[in-house]
Specification:
CATH architecture: Orthogonal Bundle
Shape: elongated
GO cellular component, one term: exodeoxyribonuclease VII complex
Order of helices and strands: HHH
Subunit structure: Heterooligomer composed of large and small subunits.
Function: Bidirectionally degrades single-stranded DNA into large acid-insoluble oligonucleotides, which are then degraded further into small acid-soluble oligonucleotides.
CATH superfamily: Exonuclease VII, small subunit
EC number: 3.1.11.6
Distance between the termini: 74 Å
Catalytic activity: Exonucleolytic cleavage in either 5'- to 3'- or 3'- to 5'-direction to yield nucleoside 5'-phosphates
Helix content: 55-70%
CATH topology: Helix Hairpins
Radius of gyration: 23 Å
Number of strands: 0
Number of helices: 3
């Protein structure tokens, strides 16, 4: 696929991005591309990787927020009052 015909990285679904990244890695490992094509593929791979990591970080933050909402806040009985007992 030529540079002009590629879907912008931000417009890909996570799965599409992963699939394309896997294909790029396979191409680069195959060592069949010309130098210029290898550089272009590597550049696209870096862009995909940066985007996918950002999405994973965002998803992780959302999960942490949701997990935090599930935790109940401590009641007065559960709070350590050992300083008052001394």
């Amino acid at each position: 696929m030529t540079e002009e015909n590629r879907t912008p990285v931000d417009d890909l679904t996570f799965r599409q991005g992963m699939d394309e990244l896997d294909a790029i890695v396979a191409q680069l490992e195959g060592n069949t591309l010309e130098l210029e094509d290898s550089l272009a593929a590597y550049e696209r791979g870096v862009a995909l990787l940066r985007n996918l990591r950002g999405r994973l970080d965002t998803a992780q933050q959302k999960v942490e927020v949701l997990m935090g909402q599930m935790e109940q806040s401590a009641t007065d009985e559960e709070i350590d009052t050992s300083l008052h007992k001394a």
